[in-house]
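Deliverable D4.2, example record:
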Amino acid sequence: MNNLTKKFSLLLISAFAVASLNARSEKAATLVEDVIWANGEIYSTVLTTNSFKNAPAHSVDYLYNFMMSGLEGQRPVSDAAPGDQHYNGGRWSVQIVVFTEVGKLAHDPDGDGIVNFELTSAEMVLHHEAIGHLEIMPANFYFSCPLVKSGQ
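Output generated by the structure prediction step:
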């Protein structure tokens, strides 16, 4: 595991731990509105206290996380959503996404550190990886937080 992966994993685990403590202290799951893109739609999620070690690839979906991407404003992107045949109910394998220098120029042409447009689907994420705008690395972190349609 490289330094960036370790740093991100620790940050993500810390954030998850805080969310878990809040959920435990409220004795209920916590709804977070408009937080994850999937298939071009924005979804809310329900924070739970569930994390797990490793999982077969067919039993999890990728959650592309931009927390340490080098630019702000890009929300996470899922490769599946409710209604998709392969959606696993919000069981995530977190993928770290980092903008390359070329990607920063393309996604933040005004140089303010905030993306000028968000990627809204896994297809867009993978396309921008293919053209050299992004690097994607597994975080080796798994957790459950189901997606729900925003506004419900």
